[in-house]
Design brief:
By secondary structure, the chain is an alpha+beta fold. It is built from 8 helices and 10 strands. β3 and β4 form a beta hairpin. α5 packs antiparallel against α7.
Length: 289
C-alpha cells in the first residue's frame, strides 16, 4: 500500500491497482499498459507517498518521451528528456528530468543548474529499478529569485545535454562565486551552522546522510560532487530550503550497492562533507564582508 494525494490534497492509502485505475483515463491511449505497469513496479514507495496522480501521469509521459528518443537516429541516446513548468503562484519553476542512471549523475545535473545561474530550492530525486531516473528540481534565477526565463532554461538544457552526451566533466570546473545573501533569506549577523548526520536505522536498504547548512548557489553541486568523490551512489534525495537554510537528505549506498556500516567510513564521510561545506561557506562570507 502507498500513500498519495486524493482530490482534496489530503493523504490517503491507495494500492497500485487504485493508482493504475485512476491513471488510465488520464493517459488514455498515449501509453501502453506495459509502460504504465513498469512505472508502478520500478519506483520506490517514497515516490508514491509524495507524488499525486496528475504528476505521476506527467512523469510517465516524460519517460515515454525519453524512451522514444532511443529510436530517434538524430538524437543522442544519452540526451535527457526535460520538462519545464512555471509555478507562478509559488514563484519558481519545476524542472523534471528523465535519463539513464549513471555514476555521478546527480552532481552533473546540479552543476548544469549552477552554470545556468539557477538556484535549487528543492528537489525530489528517484531512481527506477530499470536504470531510469526521474528527478524534479524547483528552481529560481540566482540573485533575484525570479522565475527563470526562456534563455536561462535553454542554457541549462544545452549545458546538461553537453555534459551527459560527451561524458566529459571538463565543463564542470566551476568556480563558485559568492552571492549577495540578502536574496537568500539571510538575517544580518545570523548564520546557520553546518551539520552532517548519518543514519543507518531509518532505512533497510540505504544509508541516509542529512545535511543542514546555509543555502547558496552551487550548494547541491558541491554536496553531490563530494558524495561522488567518496564513491557513494545517490538513489533518493529530498532537498528543501527554509529561511536561508538548506535541509537535505540523501539515501546512498557504496559502489557495491551496500549501506555504509564501517565506522571509519562514516567518520570520513562526515569530515569530508563538513570540511568542504565550511570551507566554501567561509569563502562566501569572507568575500561578502
Amino acid at each position: 500500500m502507498f500513500k498519495g494525494e486524493d482530490d482534496s490534497g489530503k493523504l490517503k492509502l491507495k494500492s497500485k491497482d487504485n493508482i493504475k485505475e485512476r491513471l488510465q483515463p488520464i493517459l488514455k491511449l498515449k501509453i501502453t499498459t506495459d509502460e504504465l505497469q513498469a512505472h508502478l513496479d520500478n519506483l520506490p514507495e517514497q515516490y508514491f507517498k509524495i507524488t499525486g496522480i496528475e504528476e505521476i501521469a506527467k512523469d510517465i509521459e516524460l519517460v515515454h518521451e525519453f524512451l522514444k528518443q532511443q529510436f530517434n537516429a538524430s538524437k543522442n541516446p544519452l540526451a535527457p528528456a526535460v520538462r519545464w513548468q512555471k509555478m507562478e503562484h509559488c514563484g519558481f519553476s519545476t524542472v523534471s528530468i528523465c535519463t539513464w542512471d549513471r555514476p555521478a549523475l546527480f552532481y552533473k545535473i546540479a552543476g548544469a543548474f549552477t552554470l545556468a545561474n539557477l538556484n535549487i530550492l528543492g528537489a525530489h530525486v528517484f531512481s527506477r529499478t530499470d536504470n531510469i531516473i526521474i528527478d524534479k528540481f524547483f528552481v529560481v534565477s540566482a540573485g533575484d529569485f525570479s522565475i527563470p526565463g526562456k534563455m536561462q532554461s535553454q542554457k541549462f538544457e544545452n549545458t546538461l545535454e553537453q555534459i551527459l552526451t560527451t561524458q566529459s566533466d571538463k565543463i564542470l570546473n566551476i568556480d563558485l562565486k559568492p552571492q549577495n545573501h540578502m536574496f537568500l533569506g539571510y538575517i544580518d549577523e545570523i548564520h546557520i551552522p553546518t551539520t552532517v548526520e548519518i543514519d543507518n536505522e531509518s532505512s533497510l536498504s540505504y544509508t541516509i546522510i542529512d545535511v543542514e547548512t546555509e543555502d547558496r548557489l552551487g550548494l547541491l553541486y558541491l554536496i553531490t560532487k563530494t558524495l561522488s568523490e567518496l564513491g557513494l551512489n545517490i538513489f533518493i534525495a529530498k532537498i528543501t530550503t527554509e529561511k536561508g537554510a538548506a535541509i537535505d537528505s540523501f539515501y546512498v549506498t557504496n559502489n557495491k550497492g551496500e549501506k555504509i556500516t564501517s565506522s571509519s567510513e562514516i567518520i570520513n564521510i562526515k569530515q569530508r562533507l563538513t570540511e568542504t561545506l565550511r570551507h566554501d561557506l567561509y569563502h562566501q562570507q569572507s568575500t561578502n564582508f
